[in-house]
Each structure stands twice: as structure tokens, then as C-alpha cells.
Amino acid sequence: MQLSYVLTLALQLLAVDALTVPASNHPGVPGVPKTRPQIHVGPKTLKTKLPRNSPPRHKTCHVKGGTADDSAALLKSFHECNNGGHVVLDKGVTYTIGTVMDLTFLKHVDWDIQGTLTFTTDTNYWQANSLKYKFQDSSAFFAVGGKDVNIFGGGVIDGKGQVWYDLFVKEPTAKRPLLFVIDGLEGGTMSNLNMVNPPNWFNLVANSTNIVIDNMNLKVAAVGNPAKNTDGWDTYRSSSIVIQNSIIDNTDDCVSFKPNSTQILVQNLRCNGSHGISVGSLGQYVGVVDIVEDVLVYNTSMSNAGDGARIKVFPGAPDNVTMNSGGGSGYVKNVVYDKYDVQNVDWPIEVTGCYTVKDAAACAARPPKFHISDVLFKDFTGVSNKKYDPYVATVACPSPEACENIRTENFQVKAPSGKSQAKCSNINVAELGLNCTAAA
Ligand SMILES: *[C@@H]1O[C@H](CO)[C@@H](O)[C@H](O)[C@H]1NC(C)=O
Ligand SMILES: *[C@@H]1O[C@H](CO)[C@@H](O)[C@H](O)[C@H]1NC(C)=O
Ligand SMILES: *[C@@H]1O[C@H](CO)[C@@H](O)[C@H](O)[C@H]1NC(C)=O
Ligand SMILES: *[C@@H]1O[C@H](CO)[C@@H](O)[C@H](O)[C@H]1NC(C)=O
Ligand SMILES: *[C@@H]1O[C@H](CO)[C@@H](O)[C@H](O)[C@H]1NC(C)=O
Ligand SMILES: *[C@@H]1O[C@H](CO)[C@@H](O)[C@H](O)[C@H]1NC(C)=O
Prior knowledge:
single chain; 440 residues; mainly beta; Pectate Lyase C-like; 9-stranded parallel beta barrel; two-stranded antiparallel ribbon; 24 strands; binds 2-acetamido-2-deoxy-beta-D-glucopyranose; Pectin_lyase_fold/virulence; EC 3.2.1.67; polygalacturonase activity; Pectin_lyas_fold
């Protein structure tokens, strides 16, 4: 396939000069909360539909906080202010959630978090009562879903993660809740918020479409036992999602595109301490079809990380010990990482077509049922680190048929030695454009 084809595909994602205002929320519009920010999607934008008119809200519900468990008061406000209202968590007030909340019934609501939203640390209660999801055995304190929901306010969402990191040391299988789950939301924004110390991932966006996330600040600050699995955002069964203009300081994936993430734009992120921006893992579950398609990751700064741009796919059959590490099928198509600066990153590019297996023979015993095509790594700059010097990239395709049209363009990353070599297998080296001097 020609490079121009990749670029054409990439360009289908972008309309360079277009500027989308996802919510008609100009300050001063009657009924629109003054604190609701106006969000511009840019510099790149999605061609697909994004939330546009989010009608004014005509009712305001201030939640009274400061008690040992403010969940009932918050839930009551969401019922009272649903269908056209504005739920406010006031500045200077701490709101503690001690009871699981299913907020997937929301419609035309603004959630204005000016104060601090936090959670009780009763790990037994949460493990027994959290919302449970089959996907990756995950669970949540609460989930937001419905239609046309804007979340903003400048406040803090504090997951009180340390108690969960401490629990993990004694009990690695403890069900640690995700901090913020958006499940089944059609049209919405989340912006101008600080999130700290999630027990598990910061954010999961699942079963959702037309969501814009802007100007968020995510920070993990563990004292003592280290934080675990603190992914910034994971998208799952979702499309038309924008994540932009945000700062992430964590210890796991900065953003991760899980199964069935399509039409995703991630731009202007500053990630530190993470595992990079990843496609996958895909193919983990027997018989399940996973698709990641039309993803643009633009203008990333990635520091002190395990990976820069990453794609990982499980083998085509589960291992016979855990039984949950492979057996799915699907494809990855039209994924573009454009303008990507790395500083102190182990693998600026890592493509793993047979995740978790130890060698080529073990992979051949469970050949992956995935096709990876039209992937472009463009305008990469910066320096990796000593870990794999002189190697700065590893591209491991399980077979020549599994990968098609995987390319770099203007890839300038060097290892500290000044070298820039790659480990590659089953890949068209001329097309890839890296100096493949060893087998991945
Ligand atoms: C997403 O939708 C599926 C199908 O309705 C459901 O089983 C699942 O619980 C939903 N949420 C998540 C996070 O997977
Ligand atoms: C890239 O992102 C940074 C923030 O990380 C921003 O300051 C800069 O303006 C962006 N550049 C472009 C070309 O959008
Ligand atoms: C970035 O991450 C490193 C460790 O990975 C940490 O020491 C440093 O404080 C972080 N910097 C910022 C600005 O968050
Ligand atoms: C992903 O989408 C495909 C095609 O629509 C569907 O067959 C598959 O079940 C979906 N997978 C998941 C994990 O939802
Ligand atoms: C487990 O899988 C390995 C190869 O992946 C195979 O050699 C072994 O026989 C299997 N064990 C069982 C109990 O099926
Ligand atoms: C590739 O790496 C080898 C080993 O360092 C070096 O000799 C060669 O000049 C490099 N080729 C290119 C095209 O950079």
C-alpha cells in the first residue's frame, strides 16, 4: 500500500482548519452555568459528529456536603436537576461518597464540581458493593451515563488511592474501583478538573459516543507502597472521543485504546512517568472480536516512560494456566501517531504482536488472529534512555501476513549513545523505514 493511502486515511480523521465548539456554552448565555467552559477541539478535529448544542440549564441544585457520606444528597440532586439542571458541588466543601451510585440515567445535566469529591476508604464495603464490569474484571465507585452531560468546575476528584495501593501489597486480587467511569453516555464533555490517586485506572470511557475531554490534570502521588494500574484514560466500545490539552503524571498507560475504540483523537497531552499511549491489549478473550480503528494521537510529550507509542495484541489461543490471555481476533487499522516527543523513554515505539509469550516458538503454538495495518509513526523526536540503547524501537509481527503498511516518517529519536536501531521481525523493513539490526 502506498504512503499516500495512509495519509489519505489519516486526513479523513482531520479537517485541519475546522474548529468544533462542542457545547454552545458561551459564558453569558442565559441558563448556561458561567463555570461551564467553552471547549474548542483543536488543532486537529474529528470528522465525525461531536456534541454541539448542549441546551441551557434552567435549574440549579447545590448539594450540601461535609457529612460522612454525601451520596444520598448527591443522588437526590441528580434526580431533582435531571432534564435541564445544574448540579453544583460548592467550592471549599468536601463531598464524600460512601455509597455506590449508578448515575447512568442522566439527561441534559451539568455537573459542576468546584469543591472536592472524594470517597470513603472502607475497602471491604467497596469491594462488595462497587459496580462490576466483566471487562478486565473492573469495578467502579460510580458511573455516569445517559445523554448530554457536561462535567467541569475546577475542583478535585480524590480517589484516596493509597489505602488501595497498601491493600494491593497484601491482596493483589482485591477489586480496586476505577475512579471515574463514563458508561453509555451519548454526547458530553469533561473538563477543567483535577484528579488524584485513583485506586485503579483514573478514567474509563465505555459504551459512549461523542465525548470531548479537555484541560484535565491527573496526578498520582503515592507515599509508601506504589500506585497500581493508574491508566489515565481507557476507551472501550466507544467512538468519536476526543481527549486533549491535559497533563498526566501517573504510573501506567497515559491513554489506552481498549477493544472497539474507533474515531478517537488524542492531542496536546503531556504524559510523565507512564507506560505510554497504547493500542490494547487486544485479543485477550476467547471468541471476542476487538477492533481499534481511526485513531490519531497528535502532539504528545512523553517523559520518563516505559513506552512512547505502543500496540499490543494477545496470542490466538489462551495459555492453559490462566485461560484469560488470548484467543480473541480482530484488527488494528489506521492508527497515526504524529508529532511525538520522547524524553527518557525505554521504547519510543513498541509493537508486540504476541503479547506475553516468551519466544517465537511459543507464539507459533498460539498464532495471533489479528491484522495490523496502516500504522504511521510520524515526526518523532527526543532521546530514549540507556535501557535498550542502541535500540529505540521494537516491532514484532507474529507473521508477515499479520502486519501490513506499518511505517515511520521523519523518525529522529536517538538513544543516549546517539544510535537509533530497531529490533524487527516479520516486517517490511523498507516500508518501516527503521534501521532494523536485530530480531524483535
Ligand atoms: C457496556 O455495555 C455492555 C453491553 O451492554 C455491558 O455488558 C457492560 O457492562 C457495559 N459497561 C462496561 C464498562 O463494560
Ligand atoms: C502541543 O502541545 C503543547 C502542550 O503540551 C502546546 O503548548 C503546543 O501549542 C501544542 N502544539 C501544537 C502544534 O498544537
Ligand atoms: C515525572 O515523573 C518522575 C518519575 O517518573 C517524577 O520523579 C517527577 O517528579 C515527575 N515530574 C512531574 C512534573 O510530574
Ligand atoms: C466490536 O465490534 C465488532 C463489530 O461490530 C463486534 O462484532 C464485537 O463483538 C465488538 N467487540 C466488543 C468487545 O464489543
Ligand atoms: C499447555 O500449553 C503448552 C504449550 O503452550 C503445551 O505444551 C502443554 O501441553 C499444555 N498443557 C496442557 C495441560 O494442556
Ligand atoms: C544501521 O546501524 C548499523 C549498526 O550501528 C550501522 O552500521 C548503519 O550505518 C546503520 N544504517 C543506517 C542507515 O543508519
